[in-house]
Amino acid sequence: MTLLERFRRSPDKNGLPEEYRALWLNGNIFHEFTRFVTTPEGRNIDRLAEILTHGLIPPSLDTTGKVVLNWQEVRRFYKTSATYDSVIFLHRYCDGSSMHKPWLTDKKGKTYIFLDSDYPVHTPSDMGPDWPILVMGDFEVYSKQVVAPENFRTLVVSTQAASSVADEFASRLHDLNIELFDFKGTKLI
Prior knowledge:
By secondary structure, the protein is α+β, with helices and mostly antiparallel strands. It is built from 6 helices and 8 strands.
């Protein structure tokens, strides 16, 4: 079976630990990112370290040059004046979505940070008539403010990276009371 076929099928979460399955319930809010990125100037950035220290920051509020996004391409493609750099892209999990099922792929470098379930978000319709819909449904939601690390509750990383992330960030995760899972559902912290 191809990866695409696996994504199109309903996820079988029954074999996953119950505590991990609870993360992937309809309505849970998370941010998906790649841990390591390189800026256009060639600087390497550990986004996980930055996020656990400073939170999730809309690009327009970043004063360090460490938030790496290129929304010019999105604006050109969708012919919009929307200020994508003023928001943080978040996701609301939905079983019907074909995206965000790490137990099927275990892709190295992919990282998910879950927010408190009551964290206030904006939907595409909240953003006004000029806001293009990039993902159909209410899967895509936004924050217009910095999401402080205190709003995080769970970190999910690839199975290959799990032990090194646990070793490197154990103290910070404990301080913030953030749980750590790998993509297969093993709880490390």
